[in-house]
Amino acid sequence: MNNITTNTYEMKREINNFSKKIFRGFKKSTSKFVVDMQYGLAKGGSCLISEIARSLDEDIKLGNTIERLCDNLANMKTIEKEQIWSNYKEEVKKNIDEEDVIALFDDSDINKEYSKKLEDLDRVMDGSSQDKKIVNGYHVCEATILTKNEKQPISVYSKIYSCKSKNFKSKNTYTLESIKAVE
Question: What is the DSSP letter of 151?
Fold first, then answer.
């Protein structure tokens, strides 16, 4: 039991230390919100707001925590998102040996075979199936880099998109953006 508690506190401390680097110059409320989201995602292992809220173990009603997280997510400004991404890229650059960068690119899919009414639901080839069948889902374009100091690759670009979205450009555009993110 003590080991689990220790691991939880270590994880939260690592998230807080990382977040301090990423949220330089942000309001305390914005920083707290994103730290809560990161911790909830890591602890809960789910991207559902309700699971993130449960993971926070707050002493208030679950519905109030969910409402707070949703409100903060909806009210986050584009300029704040761009600043977070910029700060993140600066931190990633500190871990890269620019002479020997190994980049991994992946055009993949998210399979939503049984979904019928999700926003901009597209038809994609299920890359994990034996017969490569066409199913409902979304396209994913991902770029990661390998470093000497980290066991896991570090994400430098990630885009989930649908060809049916009104903002869709082209698959090649997202691929080129992923390559530029590594430069």
Answer: S
